[in-house]
Amino acid sequence: MDYLFKKLTENIKSHFNVVIMTHKHPDLDGMGSAIALSKIIQSFKKDCFVIYPDDKATISVEKTVDLLKENNIEVNFKTYSEVLNFINENTLLIVLDTQKPMLVQNPELLDKIKDIFVIDHHTNSSEHISNTVFEYINSNKSSIVEIITEYLVYLNKSLNPIIITILSAGMEVDTHSYSLKTTENTFKMAGILARLGADPIIKKELLKESKDDAIKRNEHIKGSYFITDGYLLCDMGDDINDNVDLAILADELLRFDDVQVSFAVGRLSNGNVCVSARSMGKVSAAVLMSAIGGGGHVTDAAAQFTDKSNAEVVEMIKNVVMEG
């Protein structure tokens, strides 16, 4: 880890300014980490711009932006068109929480900025952002928050308790309340965030969801069924969903007794059909999704299709599961 942090610090200090972006429809792990990292970079007396979360960001990210404003914490958010006015030949682009070029918030920036530094915690993919100055991919890390917290420890720095709280919430999101993808180090970093001032009440507020969303999800859960022992699937039908809706539903399905692997299949606003898969760890969700053209982490994976119906994707999942 020290080598990563040494290279990261060197690259930040050797560039004129820095732009940070995460994946499309950002969650609190990616965006919370981007916000915290921007403050670290500013402590090096460097200008840093965070690509503004789009209108498909999770409700927790929306609450986070409001929380920052309420507490007069300034984050240098910029839209894609705005940030173009600040980049030059000596700008560094840091990409967090994805390694895939088509998943980043603004893929066009990958061609606009020549020096790119990637930090991801998902399983290594065949699709990589090319020509990076440095790439760190470690699927043993629970979250990007875990890595950014380690960076704080490495630098012996702290941040405003509100930002520390945002980081803590991001870690809770990506570990599903510390039930998946956790190691001894995950809990160590969670303890450090608590010591640095993470507020459990504010965190709980950030992680609350709307009653309507919960009711809608429960209706889908009622229609879920077992493909075979341990494999629970839900087809969300003709409803238009966001990726995050499928991810949350798959998480919920996994918490039921006798479920080892869960699948949520749904149609996105762009017309694509997506499947979000979750596993308790005995079976690799990444292997299952790779078999149908997707990928991800052992406990957390997905696939997306441009030319298939829900029924066709469901049939593909059933075939992979039954083939063992």
Descriptive notes:
With 324 residues, the chain is an alpha/beta fold. It has two domains: 2-207, inorganic pyrophosphatase (n-terminal core) (Alpha-Beta Complex); 211-323, Diaminopimelate Epimerase, Chain A, domain 1, CATH 3.10.310. It has 13 helices and twelve strands. The protein has a six-stranded parallel beta sheet. A six-stranded mixed beta sheet has the order 7-8-9-10-12-11, with helices on both faces. β2, α3 and β3 (77-78) form a beta-alpha-beta unit. α2 (28-43) runs antiparallel to α7, α6 (144-155) packs antiparallel against α7 and α7 (161-174) crosses α9 (200-207).
List the helices and strands and how they pair.
Layout lengths: L1 H13 L2 E5 L6 H16 L3 E5 L7 H12 L6 E2 L1 H4 L7 E6 L12 H4 L2 E6 L13 E4 L6 H12 L5 H14 L9 H12 L4 H8 L3 H12 L2 E4 L2 E11 L1 H12 L6 E8 L4 E7 L5 H6 L4 E2 L3 E6 L4 H14 L1
Parallel strand pairs: 1-2, 1-4, 2-3, 4-5, 5-6, 8-9
Antiparallel strand pairs: 7-8, 9-10, 10-12, 11-12
* Rough outline: globular
- Number of helices in the DSSP assignment: 13
CATH homologous superfamily heading of the largest domain:
inorganic pyrophosphatase (n-terminal core)
Quickly count the domains.
Answer: 2
What low-confidence regions span 5 or more consecutive residues with pLDDT below 50?
none
SSE order: HEHEHEHEHEEHHHHHEEHEEHEEH
CATH classification class of the largest domain: Alpha Beta
Which architecture name of the largest domain does CATH use?
Alpha-Beta Complex
Number of strands: 12
| CATH fold topology of the largest domain | inorganic pyrophosphatase (n-terminal core)
- Secondary-structure-based class equals alpha/beta
Determine the fraction of residues in helical runs and give it as a percent range: 40-55%
Question: How far from one another are the termini?
Answer: 37 Å
Major β-sheet strand ordering: 3-2-1-4-5-6
Please state the average pLDDT score: 92
